[in-house]
Amino acid sequence: MTTETNAVAVTGREGRVSLSGVGKRFVTRGRGHVGEFQALDDVSFAVEPSEFVSLLGPSGCGKTTVLRMVAGLLKPDTGTVRVGAVPVTKPGPDRAVVFQNAALLPWLDVRGNVSFGMRLLKWPSARVREQTRHYVSLVGLEGFEHHLPRELSGGMQQRVGLARALAVDPQILLMDEPFGALDEITRRQMQNELLRIWAQSRKTSLFVTHSVDEAVILSDRILIMGARPGRILADIRVDLPRPRDRDVEASDEFVALRQEVWRWLDSR
Amino acid sequence: MTRPARIRSWGARPTWLDAVARVALPLAVLVVLVAVWQSYAARAGNFLMPKPGRFVSSIPDVVGSGEAWRSIATSDLSLLFGYGLAIAVGVPLGLAMARNRLLDRVMGPYLDIAIVVPMAVMMPVVLMALGLTRRAQVAVIVLFALPFIVVATRDGARTLRAEWTEMARVFGAGEAQLWRRVLLPGSVAAIVSGLRLGFAQALTGLVTVELTLIALGIGKQMIVYQSHFQSARLFVFVAMLMLQSVVILGGLRLLERRFSRGLATSRGGRAA
Asked: ipTM, 2 decimals?
């Protein structure tokens, strides 16, 4: 399925995301005063090709800001964001985003939403159809092709968002708290789905979350961020075996990792 | 066994009663109005006021006469041009103002003025510039309808969620694609409701200009009826005009409902 699309990509390390010395200030405007808020200060890290990295931290630590910079929606004040060797200046087809609130277009049905990115890229319609069918079934939404977003549950909407991102076959998958708005049961189901789907494609992934368990079960590495200013506190390698399933939650390694992550978060 | 049925009927009233009330109450109002009309017209001194009976008997005269229809067609042509022009300018302008803050700042004040100040005050100005012509009529209609179409479109397009445009940008949409794939389809409901408001305004503009300054169609016809003391025919003619606008506005409202249904539920928030 990916053989022909991979022809688009050149060889080498184009799937690598790297940030060096990235800083970002936001201007805050209150009543009668204008302040500055250091959202990020000297953030440097890299995501290797086929690696799943989570950004974990309290709200306001700038994890979404980092993701938006990699997506090309936001420019850093200092430092550079690179994909491969190329500095990121704007969104591009090599990166796709799964949004926190799915961000589906309400007037398009499931199929229309899943194919949205491919249509913007002006792919031939036969290919669009085939990819759409493939990814709709990959995320388990067969039979719902003609449903509108409002007829779907939150979890199903998020599946559509995931399918839309995967369907354009990006090198890099960016996920901004995609399961943050879901109830706990649905959330676990979606995590399992993501584990299963990710195991098939092994896309370079950057995943923003504020759930410790979610970060541990999904990631190869967890970057723990602190707030004021937003920065990276720790880089924790998760060496749980892949393919992974829920059984690892009972393992000693999982419990130890979880505790280590919490120690970093509690220390602030 | 009867209990569940009784509980259900207790909660929701029988629908036939609703239907009767819906038809009967407006009819009752009509009957009262006709009675008031009859008694008022029957009083001495009201010789110009036709009785309801004469009104009814005049219907065939007016509806069957070519000149009534011709005058309506003449005016409707102005309405069509003016309203069409207002749409062609107003919808793109409204969308552009929703998208571009600078344009909104520049145009906004004039739009506010145009909404607040009755556009009828502009009619003498238009008349001086364009004379007693159809062009002047069309210009007046545009002046009436345009501000409402622009404002409704702009306000509707503004409520588009920022995350939709952001999402489209992430997936590589340029400005043209953004308009075609997100802004326009997302604003359809707002545009249609703007069209409805604009039509009511355009109609007001037409009638105002026809009755006060430039009588080319319906205004001319009314003057004919008045000068011949054909008050019953005048009444029928007015009723025809009202019927026409009610039908067109009703159609636009149906259209509006159709388009807003797709968006209303999903815009407010996400269902769990």
From this structure: 0.85
